[in-house]
């Protein structure tokens, strides 16, 4: 009998089946990447209500493309039975919930491995699968993970900490899920033994904020928050205003520093006690650091973005214009690499958004499907597991599944 769930063969993950139960951004972002890289990805939504991301007008068309949609109450007796049959066909399960919610509701790792010993299980939560009971079962979103991890306190300006947007903790956690499940899948295919991975969003962000924290952990000093978009540690690094827009630059290197000092009239500082020959970075602890920034601001403000970028390129200072979103589509680099593309959603409407990344040379990826509707593939997925039309209708009548 031919398979009813058909996924085109492409990408480096061709032949891998992933099941995920998660809402909003973090867990689904991982599933999105895997689906774009060729995996057959089944999105599990509850039969009684949809993923809350569906209320967004445009983002779901990107974040749920290339997926198959199964609508089922997997914690009901009949739903659990069907879910375990599905797990027998899967390579990876990704679930995002409050702490060990899957285990509490009867779907622990040991049961899943009874049905599929090679299964790789990625558990994503705000605070992890175990720990202090005051935290483990709490809900977490982007800002919660940033605040609890020490990441948020490092961002913003000198007057107030501010979370990093858009949804930095969600996307970084998604990358953590992707990398860890693929590492575990590699090992499972070698050994025949599955893995359970405990990804806590706050720990992802703890590691993302490690650069400045190390000075505190090993000396008690904590880096101050930035001022005017400048690097908190190094002058000459950060955002600068030109007469017609903004640039970012990084003065790193002795020759770059000397040539820039000459441009802004501070060449007399070179080869002094503050800036001995070979100095590569301008520490904000130096007495003249504030003066350097003042002169850089004055100099940049007198130039256009184009003029400044040309000057910086001539002295090999890394720099870029701060692009507006409107400028992306006409940027020649974006055009040459097809960084933004169009595809059709299920209604035939053209959708525009970021292309698949990264670019695989020998096993290229593709966008083959728009976001599926709630329960759109339920009949086909469960039909492949051996459920008859009569059995499917009975499950639907009992509210266990939703047929699209």
Task: Please sum up the structure shown.
By secondary structure, the protein is α/β, with parallel strands linked by helices. It has 17 helices and 15 strands.
- Proportion of residues in extended strands: 15-25%
Total helical segments: 17
The 3D shape can be described as elongated
Specify Rg, calculated over alpha carbons.
26 Å
Question: Can you describe what's shown?
Answer:
By secondary structure, the protein is an alpha/beta fold. The chain is built from 17 helices and 15 strands. Helix 2 links the parallel strand 2 and strand 3. The protein is elongated, with a radius of gyration of 26 Å. 34% of the residues are buried. The model has no long low-confidence stretch (mean pLDDT 95).
Which features does this protein show?
three-stranded antiparallel sheet, 15 strands, 404 residues, six-stranded parallel sheet
In terms of topology, how is this protein built?
Blueprint: E1 17-21, H1 26-36, E2 40-45, H2 59-63, E3 67-71, H3 77-87, E4 92-96, H4 101-104, H5 109-115, E5 120-125, H6 133-136, H7 142-149, E6 156-157, E7 160-161, H8 168-191, E8 195-200, H9 201-208, H10 210-217, E9 234-235, E10 237-242, E11 245-250, H11 254-263, E12 282-283, H12 289-301, H13 305-314, E13 318-321, H14 325-328, H15 332-337, E14 340-344, E15 350-354, H16 378-384, H17 389-397
Parallel strand pairs: 1-2, 1-4, 2-3, 4-5, 5-8
Antiparallel strand pairs: 6-7, 9-12, 10-11, 11-13, 14-15
Helix pairs in contact: 1-8, 7-9, 8-9
